[in-house]
Amino acid sequence: MRVLGSAVLVMEFFIMGFAMLVAEQHETSTIVAGATIAILFLLTPGLLKKRAGWILGSVLQFMLIGYSVVVPALAPLALLFAGLWIAAIIVGRKGEAARAALLAQAENDRVTGES
């Protein structure tokens, strides 16, 4: 779950960098907002060990979609990466559930002495 989520966030950092290059004719506040979002995309993968990191990542997805008002060409990529973010959450939950079941089965086998 964290690997895919981290990859999505880091790629979005690069996308925001390119979007800011396109938005260079806009006001300075728009560029600063884009830079702030980009830096948050780069720092958030370190927080994915906790639930707050996943919540921040989800908020950043909406911020990226919102920034596509400034750079309209960003909209398809923002939606694509939001979909990947949702996939990371869904696949991660299924993977964690499968891992927990395997660990429980292994513990049960160890206790009962079966192999």
SSE blueprint:
Elements: H1 2-22, H2 28-43, H3 51-67, H4 75-112
Extended strand count: 0
Question: In what range is the share of β-strand residues?
Answer: under 5%
Q: Which descriptor suits the 3D outline?
A: elongated
Largest sheet: none
Q: Provide mean pLDDT, rounded.
A: 90
Structural class: mainly alpha
Contiguous low-pLDDT stretches (5 residues minimum) are none
Q: State the distance separating the first and last CA atoms.
A: 29 Å
Task: Describe the structure in your own words.
There is one protein chain. This protein is mainly alpha-helical and 115 residues long. 80% of the residues lie in helices and 0% in strands. The protein has helices at 2-22, 28-43, 51-67, 75-112. It has one domain. The protein starts with a helix and ends with a helix. The model has no long low-confidence stretch (mean pLDDT 90). α1 (2-22) packs antiparallel against α2 (28-43) and α2 (28-43) packs antiparallel against α3 (51-67). It is built from four helices and no strands.
Keywords:
0% strand; mainly alpha; 4 helices; elongated; 115 residues
Brief digest:
With 115 residues, the chain is an all-alpha fold. It has helices at residues 2-22, 28-43, 51-67, 75-112.
